[in-house]
Amino acid sequence: MKITFITGNKHKVLEAKGIFKEFGIQVEQVDIEYPELQGTLEEVAKYGAKYAAKLLRKPVIVEDAGLFIRALKWFPGPYSAYVQETIGNNGILKLMENIDDRYAEFRSVVGYCAPDTEPETFLGVVKGEIGFKEKGNKGFAFDPIFYPEGKNKTFGELTREEKNKISHRSKSFRKFAKWYKREVIL
User: Distance between CA 160 and CA 158 in Å, rounded?
Assistant: First the structure.
């Protein structure tokens, strides 16, 4: 069985392939642009999946994720990609200077839609903390500044296999894969 993943992010595709392999699901990557709403991760994922399913005339998934930092009133949240491009990890670390509350969450939402149906969403969350400096060169984006709960390494220091066991994306992908096998694949 196969699912079409709408993304241009090769890191996300590698994570998806590693997780979906456990469920016997193959991943086909299609990189098409779709209008990204300003809204919650769920709204973005629903809209993107519905748009792509209608355009391609087949079932698809999209994934949207963000870093949510409590002390910054859950910023950058759904604007994480933009914030990463503009101020990057150093900008976040600068905003966190002199802040004791380092609690943060990575959240991921997978949106699934088939043509002429309403989208489904699947949320994955991993709790953790923002570090004081970048550590590690694995992963991407905010990974080198995020320590997942219970680990003394950042996501940027974990191998893909280690990260896939605990990440927000692995949680949303696994929720989707279980549902997909149960509800869609007969």
Answer: 6
- 75 assigned to a ligand binding site: no
- CATH number at 96 reads 3.90.950.10
Count of structural domains, the chain:
1
**85 has binding-site annotation:** no
Active-site residue, from 31, 64, 100, 101: 64
Cβ neighbours around 48 below 10 Å, total = 26
For residues 125 and 168, the answer to whether their CB atoms sit within 8 Å is: yes
Dihedral over alpha carbons 164, 31, 121, 45 (to 10 degrees): 120
> How far apart are the C-alpha atoms of 139 and 165, rounded to whole Å?
14
Instruction: Determine whether the annotation assigns residue 91 to a binding site.
Output: no
- For 110, phi and psi rounded to 5 degrees? -95, 130
Are the beta carbons of 23 and 178 closer than 8 angstroms? Answer: yes
The answer to whether 64 is a known catalytic residue is: yes
105-164 residue pLDDT tens = 999 999 999 998 999 999 999 999 999 999 998 877 899 999 999 999 999 999 888 888
Could you list the residue range(s) of the whole structural domain that residue 91 is in? 2-184
